[in-house]
């Protein structure tokens, strides 16, 4: 799952990026509004974490431009301005959530999970596909009742597929959700990770089907 973090405080951005990557998110970090605007035009994100006090293009202007362009990506505003007027301005500009600094990383992660579920129309915190269960509250997978051990990349692939269960996901879309700007990935990388996940699902009633020319489909194997 890929996140765009827009924060001009480089120390805070580095800390947040490290924490989110440890939580198995792919994270792109930019430090001004213009770079964020460009990133949002060339890449798809599950969530945007947006500071309001940005150089070159402020957060509210960036957010308004994003919504005017029809981009519905969930946005969490981070700001030191915890006033009512500040919250109202952010929400009226199109933000989905608001978190005042300082904050706990656990709370930010919980809000990210809630927005992702909402964005995929997954109100329930648990998704079951055959023998596979994904717990949205912890982002853990269980297969036949046992915790499924996955590397961060394998987890990212399976999480995106389970969020789109029943729908075909193209290789390019899957790649974009797994790899950030700073990641080095050759064209066959996604195929390798899908193969590894398939091996870990062997013997269960869930499978990742390949639809030639279309992409991958997570489904209950009948």
UniProtKB/TrEMBL annotation:
Signal peptide: none annotated. Residues 2-116 form the Response regulatory domain. Gene3D superfamilies: 3.40.50.2300, 6.10.250.690, Winged helix-like DNA-binding domain superfamily/Winged helix DNA-binding domain (1.10.10.10). GO terms for molecular function: phosphorelay response regulator activity; transcription cis-regulatory region binding. Keywords: DNA-binding, Phosphoprotein, Transcription, Transcription regulation, Two-component regulatory system. The keyword DNA-binding applies. GO terms for biological process: regulation of DNA-templated transcription. The modification 4-aspartylphosphate is found at residue 51. One of its GO terms (cellular component) is protein-DNA complex. PROSITE patterns: OMPR_PHOB, RESPONSE_REGULATORY. Residues 124-220 form the OmpR/PhoB-type domain. It comes from the Bacteria. Residues 124-220 bind DNA. The keyword Protease does not apply. PANTHER family: REGULATOR OF RPOS, TRANSCRIPTIONAL REGULATORY PROTEIN TCTD. This is DNA-binding response regulator.
């Amino acid at each position: 799952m890929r996140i765009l973090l827009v924060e001009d405080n480089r120390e805070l951005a580095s800390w947040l990026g490290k924490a989110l990557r440890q939580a198995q998110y792919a994270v792109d970090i930019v430090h001004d509004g213009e770079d964020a605007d460009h990133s949002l035009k060339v890449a798809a994100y599950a969530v945007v974490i947006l500071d309001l006090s940005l150089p070159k293009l402020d957060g509210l202007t960036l957010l308004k431009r994003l919504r005017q362009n029809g981009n519905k990506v969930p946005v969490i505003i981070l700001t030191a301005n915890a006033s009512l007027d500040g919250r109202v301005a952010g929400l009226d500009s199109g933000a989905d959530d608001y978190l005042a600094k300082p904050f706990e990383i656990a709370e930010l992660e919980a809000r990210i999970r809630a927005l992702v579920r909402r964005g995929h129309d997954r109100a329930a915190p648990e998704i079951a596909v055959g023998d596979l269960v994904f717990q949205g509250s912890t982002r853990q997978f269980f297969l036949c009742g046992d915790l499924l051990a996955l590397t961060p990349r394998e987890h990212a692939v399976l999480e995106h597929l389970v969020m789109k269960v029943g729908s075909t996901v193209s290789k390019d879309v899957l790649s974009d959700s797994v790899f950030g700007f700073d990641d080095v990935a050759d064209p066959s990388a996604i195929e390798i990770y899908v193969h590894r996940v398939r091996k870990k699902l062997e013997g269960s009633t869930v499978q990742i089907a390949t639809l030639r020319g279309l992409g991958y489909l997570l489904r209950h194997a009948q």
